[in-house]
From TrEMBL:
Transmembrane segments: none
Glycosyl transferase family domain span: 204-352
Pfam families xrefs: Glyco_transf_4 (PF13439), Glycos_transf_1 (PF00534)
Protein name, UniProt field: Glycosyltransferase family 1 protein
Alphabetical list of PANTHER family matching this protein: SULFOQUINOVOSYL TRANSFERASE SQD2 (PTHR45947:SF3)
Keyword presence, Transferase: yes
Coiled-coil residue windows: none
Length: 399
């Protein structure tokens, strides 16, 4: 890449490996794409217990990672956020980025945003976590107004907020968040592909040739995996639960006949997902749901709640079925319909693969880089001087 066309990007994220969640995964994919294209990247992220603050181990592609102190939310212990710190300002001043990327900003993200404004650097905020929805799941009542006040205050200061799905885009608009745009997520169609389907694995999971129905995701209250109990006794199927989390022991008691694989990644995960016949998702607070997209890329029809990100991903009657969020009866009926009709499953399997064409990370990150260039006023490599997109000159003052 011509160095004159490269963009320097500082990513301030509330989550980063070795943590495993949707935010961390998306940031890693973005870093991989940016560095592969010759862009310069710095990551600022919360460290774990015992990690020293400061410049830590290199991230994907050898990018520098600045670690800051972090803490878990009291109502959501598995959600770790960075604490506000002036170290963010120092790191940004030294790096001198063209744009700051705020990944699911909440606490550390506010530091990143304040530092960016102090230094005159434009900022893109990527909305990714339904904190209000999670708070409700964990019994924190009456917190919605306060959480949305905080999120609105934060996002109003960003030059652009990117939403991962059309329902989230509409919700943010309704909540008064300005300067919105859509930005989805990519899927690795080499890792998630029907070719990874394994007859040997299927024989172990369903020795009598049953239909294999699987859930893949974190076993935590906000994902509502207890709903799986309503489908566990369907005739002619075997239930497989892939993942780990604080709800695992309770679920193993609730689902004694299900196969629990624990956390899986890499080739094992690719094989497991592709070897399912039906993918079931139970969480109703997903802003996108990458696990659904990975199942579709693997040729697996999906049953999911009709809310948030799944609404964009699942086309009812084409690549899967949607049910009313939390409605165990509709969930059971939807899964039963696919278990009983092999021809419908096979037809949907083909449509599932077709539905994710063009959603690779390369294409998705092309769009993200376009957003970077627009808010920073940087011309694309093939754009003559003085012909930058007019939208790059229309950034509003923060409210």
């Amino acid at each position: 890449m011509d160095t004159l066309s490269a963009v320097k990007v500082a990513i301030v994220t509330e989550s980063f490996p070795p943590r495993v969640d949707g935010v961390a995964n998306s940031v890693v994919r973005v870093v991989e794409q940016l560095t592969a294209r010759g862009h310069d990247v710095l990551v600022i992220a919360p460290g774990g217990p015992g990690d020293a603050v400061g410049l830590g181990p290199s991230g994907p592609g050898g990018v520098p990672v600045e670690l800051v102190h972090g803490v878990s939310l009291p109502f959501y212990r598995s959600f770790h956020v960075g604490l506000p710190t002036r170290r963010v300002t120092v790191a940004l001043r030294d790096f001198r980025p063209d744009v700051v990327h705020l990944a699911s900003p909440l606490v550390l993200g506010l530091s990143g945003l304040a530092a960016a404004r102090r230094l005159g650097i434009p900022a893109v905020a990527v909305f990714q976590t339904d904190v209000a929805g999670f708070a409700r799941c964990y019994g924190v009542r009456g917190a919605d107004p306060l959480i949305w006040w905080w999120l609105r205050r934060l996002h109003r200061r960003a030059d652009r907020t990117l939403a991962p799905s059309t329902p989230v885009l509409a919700e943010l608009e309704r909540r008064g968040v300005p300067r919105l745009a859509f930005w989805g997520r990519g899927v690795d169609r080499r890792r998630f592909h029907p070719g990874h389907r394994s007859p040997q694995l299927r024989a172990r999971l369903a020795p009598d040739g049953e239909v294999v129905v699987g859930y893949v995701g974190r076993l935590a209250m906000e994902k509502r995996p207890a709903l799986l109990a309503r489908i566990a006794d369907l005739p002619g199927m075997r239930l497989v639960v892939v993942g780990d989390g604080p709800e695992r022991e309770r679920l193993e008691r609730l689902l004694p006949d299900a196969t629990f694989t624990g956390f899986r990644t890499g080739a094992e995960l690719s094989e497991l997902v592709a070897s399912l016949d039906v993918f079931v998702h139970t969480g109703a607070d997903e802003t996108f749901c990458q696990a659904i997209q990975e199942a579709l890329a693997s040729g697996v029809p999906v049953v999911a709640p009709a809310s948030g990100g799944p609404v964009d991903l699942v086309r009812p009657g084409v690549n899967g079925l949607l049910y009313a969020p939390g409605d165990a009866g509709q969930l059971r009926a939807s899964v039963s319909a696919l278990v009983e009709h092999a021809t419908l499953r096979h037809w949907m399997s083909e449509r599932a693969v077709e539905s994710v064409r063009g959603r690779d990370w390369e294409s998705v990150c092309d769009e993200l880089i376009r957003h970077y260039r627009e808010i920073a006023g940087i011309a694309a490599p093939d754009t003559p001087p003085g012909r930058q997109d007019a939208r790059a000159r229309q950034t509003e003052d923060a409210v």
